[in-house]
Each structure stands twice: as C-alpha cells, then as structure tokens.
Amino acid sequence: MSGHLAIVGLGPGDERYLTREAEEALQAADALFGYGPYLDRVPERPGQARHPSDNREEDARAKAALLHAADGGSAAIVSGGDPGVFAMAASVCEAIEAGPHAWRALDIAIVPGITAMLAVAARAGAPLGHDFCVLSLSDNLKPWALIEQRLDAAAGAGLVIALYNPVSRARPSQLGKAFAILARRLDGTTPVIFGRAIGRSDESLVVTTLADASGVAADMASLVIVGSRETRVIARPGSSPLVYTPRAVESVSA
Amino acid sequence: MSGHLAIVGLGPGDERYLTREAEEALQAADALFGYGPYLDRVPERPGQARHPSDNREEDARAKAALLHAADGGSAAIVSGGDPGVFAMAASVCEAIEAGPHAWRALDIAIVPGITAMLAVAARAGAPLGHDFCVLSLSDNLKPWALIEQRLDAAAGAGLVIALYNPVSRARPSQLGKAFAILARRLDGTTPVIFGRAIGRSDESLVVTTLADASGVAADMASLVIVGSRETRVIARPGSSPLVYTPRAVESVSA
C-alpha cells in the first residue's frame, strides 16, 4: 500500500512549541484530521483538505484517516501535546489492530510533541526532575477504583504525579477525591501545580499546597502536578516561585 | 538583576526535534554552557561563547551559567531531551536554592524539549498511551533499594514503565536486576522496547519481551520502555511491529 498516515503532536497552544519535524509533516499531508480547536491552530494550505471532528470522536477520526491513507492519500492527524500521551496514537493503533489486515502495511509515522506536563513543569521549575508517574484521571475508559489504587501506589512509592484530564463537566468532583486520597500519604504542605493553556495568551499557572488544592479551579484543559515528599519551593521576589524535585533521595523510607 | 538564564531542551539527536522556542533561546544567548556532545549539536555563532563541560559536572555547569547571568549576561544551558526530566533544570534549581539570595531575582526560562521516552514511544507506536511511570535506574543519587521498591510498586499498579539511565559503565548489571524484579509481577511475554539515538543516523529500536530483554545490549544513551499487562504488539509485514497500550482498562485487578 502506498498511503501514508502521520500522527502529529502540535505541543501546547503556542506554535513556538512546534518542532521542525511536525511542521514538515503538516506540510506534506493532503488531508488533515483532528479535533476542531487543534486543527484551527494549523494554517490553511491550498489543496489540503481539513476534516474537523469532535473531542469524543477519536475512533471515527482514526478510521477516517486510515481509510484516506488506504486509498493512497497522505493523511495527518493533529494532536495537542504529544500524540503518544493520552492522545491519538493509541486510538490509531487500536483501529489498525481491529481493522482490515491491509492497514498493517500502511506507512505510519508518529511525530512527537511537547506534552502538557513538560510545558507546565518548565514554567514552574523542575517538579519532574526526579522519578514520576503520569495518570489520566478520566474514568471514561477505566474503573475509578483502579485510579484510586494507582494514586495510592504512586504517592506511597514517593513519586511525583502528573494528572491529565483532571476534571470534566461529567466528572466535577473527582479531582477533589484524588487530592483526598493523596492526602493520606502526603503532608498538606506538599506543593501542587495547576497549569493551563501554557504558551497561549490566557496561560495560567497556580502553585499551591495539597491542603489548599481542592479550592483551585481546574477544567479539561488543566494539567495538575502533585509533588512528592522531596519537592521543594523557592520563593522569588517579584516572580512566581520555582518548584523543583531534587535529583537526590537519601533514604529508602522517603 | 538584569541577567538572564535559559535552560534549553534540544530534544533527541536530530535537529528536526528542535522547537522554534528552543532555536530562539539559543540565538538570544551570549554564552552557551553544556555537556560537550550536546553543545556540538548547536551551530557556532559569532560573538557567542561556548563552555563545554563533562557529563558529571552538572553542579559546576549550573553555577557557572548562574554566575554569568548574575554578571548581567545572557546564558543558555543546553540539555539533551527535555531539561526537566532527569536533566539540567533540577540542577539549576538546586544551585539557586543553595546560592546567593540575589540569584533568586534572575530571569530564568526553562524551554521544554522532546524527552527521550516520547521519541522512542513515537517510533514504537503508542506504548505510553495509558498510565505510566518514569524512573531513573541510576543509583548515583538514590539508594538501589528505593529503585527496587519503585519498580515493584509501578509494575504492581499496572503502569507502563519508562527507564532512563538504564546502564552505565559503573552499573553494568542493574538493568538485568530490574528486569528480574519486574518479572515477579509481569509475564515473560510483556513487551519491552529499547530505543537509542532516535533521529540520528545510528538510531536503533529493538522490540522484545521481558523474558528476552536481559540479552539486549544497552548503554547510557538507551531508553527502555517496559509494557504493562495491557500492552499489545501488532506485527506488520515488512516493518517493525507497532507496540501500544490501549486507552481502556476493563478490570481493577489488572
């Protein structure tokens, strides 16, 4: 089969986060597929078709792009952040495994991007400077009890925790529940970072503590980082504090 | 203080992984600091000083760059991958906290980059498509017993595991020990990915199983991803398999 499919990470909102490889992959496609607001971030090009779809239509989007490639086209699916982290790359792999055998012969390229936790961490300091764990708080595709188990295991193991999909309209209270579970293992003074729309004009970054975290507003576009017992905060005159997790851990009990 | 320090992620080896923000930050500096091989990846510019240092001189490098900024200069520290993941951003934060109080008034910018696990995952498929954990296997700065605890906790919690610093000349056998610990929790058929020098001419990607993983050669520049019980492999005619972790998990016992 001669068709081609690229799954391209756009990074967070700002086009300055685009890599050259991503720019080239977007230019090479004859049809773009993606969640509407992500597609809107890609400049229109003559002769390049655009197929926007809704947030929850990942399966249909993956199939449409694979069909385009199977017809000999050059498709690109755009993904916010990195396509491999709670994004379209897994959807496409699922569609390939479930689809016609011929799809396995397609030329598939996954183009990495700056995922939200890296952008938020960079704005805050270096909270992911030591061992960490990355969890989606959405229970659309896994049981909430499993999320509770993983939160407890991660905090118990001394890992910093990055939380994707912390809140949605259908799940307004789960982030608060997650903080309560973590509070069994971690002091109330543990640093917590809320990042949103990093790189865009409406960017926000809030540094607070686990004790106060449930009072901070968050939404689907937020990314939350909960520190470990080792994570430290350096106050700075006239600017936001630096939050970082040191490279060294002295004792096993930590 | 008028000085400026940028800590810039170069991504993996290929310059196509550079973001525009990183290119701009490198252009704006009047002095570059970094591990020699990373500095070698940045084109020389007239009037821009270059201060290469050795791999293990992170503390001295951070201080030298901070001193340059405190003198009113515009310093940039280059970092492979992302500066926030087992790299220079934490070193700089440590130096600021331990250093003169005036350093807290410096303008510090951390510029994220494509960290190795994202590049390796993209080449392999979507192994990080579900919850995962990121560990450094180096016991230079933490006890080996803590690493063992975290490996066990992560595998027990059903997390995919990305391993940075899997091997060094001083630690030739720890990766094999890590696989043995994981084998207590995971089947021998669990997919394991070894990525090295992704984006460079000597790039390599090996997909194997936990049972066979200890026989694969790795070094300091390798990044290893160990799947979870959910991770799947799609064989493809004429090209390497797609390895991915589905978005959905059905049961809590997983």
- Mean pLDDT across all amino acids of chain A: 94
For the secondary structure, the number of strands of chain A is 13
Compute the separation of the termini of chain A in Å: 54 Å
Kindly report the greatest chain-chain contact and the residue count on each side.
Answer: A-B, 80 and 80 residues
Strand order of the largest sheet of chain A: 3-2-4-1-5
**Helix and strand sequence of chain A:** EHEHEHEHEHEEHEHEEEEE
List the domain count of chain A as a whole number.
2
Q: Can you summarize the main beta sheet of chain A? A: 5 strands, parallel
**CATH level 4 superfamily of the largest domain in chain A:** Tetrapyrrole methylase, C-terminal domain
Class of the largest domain in chain A in CATH?
Alpha Beta
Low-confidence spans of chain A = none
Oligomer: homodimer
Q: Within the CATH hierarchy, at the fold level, what is the topology of the largest domain in chain A?
A: Methyltransferase, Cobalt-precorrin-4 Transmethylase, Domain 2
Structural class of chain A: alpha/beta
Helix content of chain A: 25-40%
Architecture of the largest domain in chain A, CATH level 2? 2-Layer Sandwich
